[in-house]
Amino acid sequence: MVSFRSDRSWHFAVSPEELWDCLTVTDDYPQWWPWLRRFRPDGGFRRGARWSCTVSPPLPYDVQFSVLLDEVDPARRVSARVDGDVRGDAVLTVEGDTSGCTARLRSNLAPAIPVLRSFGTVARPLVRWGHDWVLDQGQRQFVDRGLPTDMS
Fold first, then answer.
1. What's the rounded Cα separation, in Å, for the pair 46 and 79?
2. CA 5, CA 50: separation in Å to the nearest integer?
3. Disulfide engineering: 41 pairs with which of 26, 65, 110, 125, CB 3.0-4.6 Å?
4. What gap in Å lies between CA 92 and CA 74, rounded to an integer?
5. Is the distance from CB of 85 to CB of 109 less than 8 angstroms?
């Protein structure tokens, strides 16, 4: 089966607690990320919460999935399972440093429906590009729209 592993890190000029305070405002996610077509964060940002999502990458399909937050250690770590059109797991860790903090997102996701599995096999570089586009745009849009201007 085709899977897509990611390991991305981003530096933010804020403390882990300040970053966490912004990240946990889940009601703002659709305003930050216009490609997040549907988002229902049942349970907020805590262990056991289940988020329903539809993402529209710059590819000819929308991806629908849920995210179940398995572990939430505030301002340090979140682990989640993803299920739906794509399946897998993801871990976000946050570590402070002298100039702010670094957030690291590691994920292992695989297409779970036949059409996406076929597309992922035939057009793997394009699917990888779409996945990376969502991550890169997401980081830029979060900095522009999610962090207060005095924090970025």
1. 11
2. 22
3. 26
4. 11
5. no
CB 96 within 8 A of CB 16: yes
pLDDT digits (tens, 9 = 90+) for 11-21: 999 999 999 99
| Residue 152 scores a pLDDT above 60 | no
CB atoms within 10 A of CB 71: 11
Cα–Cα distances in angstroms (integers) from residue 92 to residues 7, 50, 75, 121, in the given order: 10, 16, 10, 27
**What is the DSSP annotation of 15-59?**
-HHHHHHHHT-GGGHHHH-TTEEEEEEET-SSTT-EEEEEE--SS
Confidence (pTM): 0.88
- What pLDDT, on a 0 to 100 scale, did the predictor assign at position 128? 75
Separation between Cα atoms, residue 134 and residue 145, nearest integer Å:
15
The CATH fold assigned to 4-146 is Alpha-D-Glucose-1,6-Bisphosphate; Chain A, domain 4 (3.30.530)
Mean pLDDT value of segment 84-105: 96
State how far Cα 108 lies from the chain centre: 12
